[in-house]
């Protein structure tokens, strides 16, 4: 019950009218010829949080609550999600990484810690490889270096289901079971329902934007880029993740030179929700070990 109460409280904090809280409108910035929406909280070195498939900046609400005690947390809406601009044409994880690099330049951030889960991790790989000078540390959670036939089948299934209804309902009914363990559904049904409510409370991604973003997942291939990553890197997986399972761990750890591997027991794909306390504690330990090299926006 207490977990459900906490989640509903977090939902309220992220969905209420921020002007009533004295925070003003959500900031936006022009970067890479598009307008990107973002949220900034906390003080300290900048930490950029890159969302996963379909999600907007609020997906890291549970992490920002702790991270912001030590870092300036900047969570953005990727193009085609949340309140960021929707564009025509194909998306790729490389293009989305270029968006993040341009976003950092627009905010005057010379170097930042980078963290992402799933699609956010895929984008982070390209960012750290292609724009290595702006990445102080890299956290890759539930990531994969190249889409394989199994993952391709999963994503194509999501695309079929999204076309028959809405993207948020596809997330709850099709994507959730790949992200959460059966044990979590059985032991904490109210918590899972709260997560579903959270998804439904956020700005819905359009079908067109979902297709563009999920096609970027299908075409993702950063295998040849991993050796270019210079930043200290944390690679994490849930032990029971099937979608982006530990089948990717050896090649990522082997090709990213300054990397370490961490497994979360009892978790599947969405470790940020399945074991919030342990995830926050262990990932913060990594971030704090590598603090001191990020440069905030020039005043």
Q: Would you kindly provide a written description of the structure presented here, covering whatever features stand out?
A:
This protein is α/β, with parallel strands linked by helices and 299 residues long. The protein has helices spanning 2-15, 61-67, 93-106, 119-130, 149-164, 167-179, 182-187, 189-201, 207-218, 249-255, 271-274, 276-289, and strands at residues 28-31, 34-41, 45-50, 71-76, 112-117, 135-141, 233-238, 259-264. 44% of the residues lie in helices and 16% in strands. Mean pLDDT is 92; it is low at 1-24. The longest helix has 16 residues, at 149-164. The chain has one domain (2-289): Rossmann fold (3-Layer(aba) Sandwich), CATH 3.40.50.1820. The protein is built from 12 helices and 8 strands.
Which SSEs are present, and which pair or pack?
Blueprint: H1 2-15, E1 28-31, E2 34-41, E3 45-50, H2 61-67, E4 71-76, H3 93-106, E5 112-117, H4 119-130, E6 135-141, H5 149-164, H6 167-179, H7 182-187, H8 189-201, H9 207-218, E7 233-238, H10 249-255, E8 259-264, H11 271-274, H12 276-289
Which key terms come to mind for this protein?
8-stranded mixed β-sheet; 16% strand; single chain; alpha/beta; disordered N terminus; 12 helices
What's the quick description here?
It contains twelve helices and eight strands. It is an alpha/beta fold. The protein has a single domain (2-289), classed as Rossmann fold (3-Layer(aba) Sandwich).
């Amino acid at each position: 019950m207490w977990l459900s109460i906490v989640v509903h409280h977090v939902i309220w904090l992220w969905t209420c009218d921020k002007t009533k809280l004295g925070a003003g409108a959500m900031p936006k910035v022009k970067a890479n010829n598009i307008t990107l929406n973002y949220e900034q909280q906390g003080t300290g070195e900048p930490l950029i949080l890159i969302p996963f498939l379909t999600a907007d900046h609020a997906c890291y609400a549970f992490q920002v609550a702790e991270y912001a005690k030590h870092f300036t947390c900047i969570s953005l809406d990727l193009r085609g999600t949340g309140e960021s601009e929707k564009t025509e044409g194909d998306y790729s994880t490389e293009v989305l990484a270029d968006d993040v690099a341009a976003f950092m330049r627009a905010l005057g951030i010379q170097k930042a810690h980078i963290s992402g889960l799933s699609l956010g991790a895929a984008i982070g790989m390209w960012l750290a490889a292609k724009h290595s000078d702006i990445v102080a540390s890299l956290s890759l959670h539930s990531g994969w270096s190249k889409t394989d036939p199994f993952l391709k089948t999963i994503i194509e299934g999501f695309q079929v289901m999204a076309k028959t209804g809405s993207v948020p309902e596809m997330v709850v009914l099709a994507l959730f079971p790949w992200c959460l363990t059966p044990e979590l559904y059985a032991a904490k049904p109210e918590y899972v329902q709260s997560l579903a409510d959270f998804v439904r409370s956020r700005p819905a991604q359009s079908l067109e934007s979902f297709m563009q973003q999920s096609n970027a997942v299908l075409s993702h291939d950063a295998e040849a880029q991993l050796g270019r990553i210079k930043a200290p890197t944390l690679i994490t997986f849930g032990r029971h993740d099937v979608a982006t399972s530990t089948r990717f761990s050896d090649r990522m750890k082997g090709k990213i030179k300054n990397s370490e591997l961490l497994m979360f027991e009892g978790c599947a794909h969405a470790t940020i929700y399945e074991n919030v306390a342990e995830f926050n504690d262990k990932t913060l330990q990594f971030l704090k070990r590598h603090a001191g090299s990020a440069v905030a926006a020039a005043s």
